[in-house]
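Q: For a teaching session next week I want to show students how multiple molecules come together into a single three-dimensional assembly. I've collected the sequence lines for a complex. Could you give me the predicted structure tokens for the whole thing so I can convert them for display?
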Amino acid sequence: MDEKTFVTDIEELLEVDAGSLTASIELASLEQWDSLAFVSFLAMADSKYNTKVAPTGLRQCKTIGDLMKLVGQ
Amino acid sequence: MATTKIQGVRIAGIASAVPNTVSAVADAADKFGAEDIQKIIKSTGVERRHVAAPKLCCSDLCYAAAKRLLDDLKWDPASVDGLIFVSQSFDFPCVPATSCILQMRLGLPKSAAVFDLVLGCSGHVYASWVAANLLAASGLSRVLVLAGDVATRGVSPLDRSTALLFGDGGSATALEKDGNAPPLAFVLGTDGTGWKNLIMPTGIQSARHPRNETTAVRQKAEANNWRSQDELFMDGTEIFAFTIREVPTLISNVLAASGWTRDEVDYFVFHQANKFMLTHLAKSMKLPLPKVPFSLKEYGNTSSASIPITINSELGEAIRTRPLKLLMAGFGVGYSWGACTATCGPLVTPPVILVDESEAWQC
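A: Of course. Below is the structure for the complete assembly, covering every listed component.
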């Protein structure tokens, strides 16, 4: 799994244009990063990366790159 | 481990009842915006909810369900020697027990053992487990489990995480001694570390945080939601994480306890938490979606009534005529969870009953 694929997954999850995000983008700057997106991310981490993400870890993430570290990629 | 296999107890009938007043989720567009409403509906699967008028109590809904079920089963109320009311919505929180009032209203004998249990999403499974154990181990021969909540009460209309999710409902499940009944298997569990993630902080009669004039004031919370301390708080992210952590194991354990294979199960009847969660659980456990019935669209999340409502509304036609192998699982507030396997049917199960405010108990 490379960074590009992971960022694409997040773009699909948040329903934003392909190529519009990068790993360094701050999550707080994305209006789509809301409570429904948190839950969608936990679901994706579980089904796609086989990782049960703890919500406390999720809350500490500042960037998309941090999310990638969280799922162990 | 709280794992039990029970012989000689039969589920004879299931009825459920909801208020006749319906609230369409789309009508809340003026509060949250049409775009947010569509996102919420897509995620929760809830389009309509039955919302109790002010005078209706949970016990009124359970009473209507129980009355109809006794009639349909042709059970003389005098033959019912146990009643368990499981809820978080009581007539007089909490003195006296609502089950005592229901014993009187239903005309159960004075020799009946009746009591309340306090649980939400897991309540129907827990109370059925208690009832089945009582029937198997004590002298009781017929027990009613009345499960439900008026979950729309105590929810802030300005909190999008809860305002459009819950519906009101009550139910009655009739269990009786029957030497020929196939075995029931149960697995129960608890993780109290999740207590703060689904809570009414200064709920009625809270001894930890008594209500006062400031706890009733709605304040701005996360994501532009507004709610007071008296109202329900739900951390949906934590609840989702808890569910995907515990429920797959719960399902495996109850299958192991029953000796059933996954393929043998006709229907997996889950507490109707929300559509996104149930769909994810089904996919991650590789359950075929047609075997996972949903009643969220019409009734929302009705707490401990959601399993009986789903059986009535989605499986009624099939289960009235033939036995079905059901795996029922409730999980949530507490955190508390329970699952049960039962071969049910042909089951006495009327269509979901609609209750008018005029049917509220006049005391």
